[in-house]
Amino acid sequence: MRNISTVNPKTFARSAQFEHRLKSLFLLWFRNYRTRKALNRIEPHRLRDIGVDAAQAKAEHNTPFWR
């Protein structure tokens, strides 16, 4: 096992950046999942208020969370 003092600072910075990007990606996916699930539960007259019809809401709900 390597001691922290032997870790190259550039490698450590890249690792931290990778972890940050990965965390951001997971948060985006989770937000997509939650918002698409919520959109599917909105009543049709409320969808019209925000300019979305039921077919659009259904299509968005069926989109995978990673897209």
Count the DSSP helices.
3
The count of β-strands is 0
Task: Look at the structure and give the mean pLDDT.
Answer: 87
Q: Spell the H/E element sequence.
A: HHH
Gross geometry: rod-shaped
Give the low-confidence spans.
none
Percentage of residues in DSSP E strands: under 5%
Helix content: over 70%
Main sheet properties: none
Structural class label: mainly alpha
User: Span between N and C termini?
Assistant: 39 Å
Q: Rg to the nearest angstrom?
A: 20 Å
Description:
The structure is a single chain. The chain is mostly helical and 67 residues long. 70% of the residues lie in helices and 0% in strands. The protein contains three helices and no strands. It has helices at residues 9-41, 44-49, 54-61. It is rod-shaped and about 60 Å long. The model has no long low-confidence stretch (mean pLDDT 87).
Give a short overview.
The protein has helices at about 10-40, 45-50, 55-60.
Write the layout of secondary structure elements.
Layout lengths: L8 H33 L2 H6 L4 H8 L6
Index terms:
single chain, 67 residues, mainly alpha, 70% helix
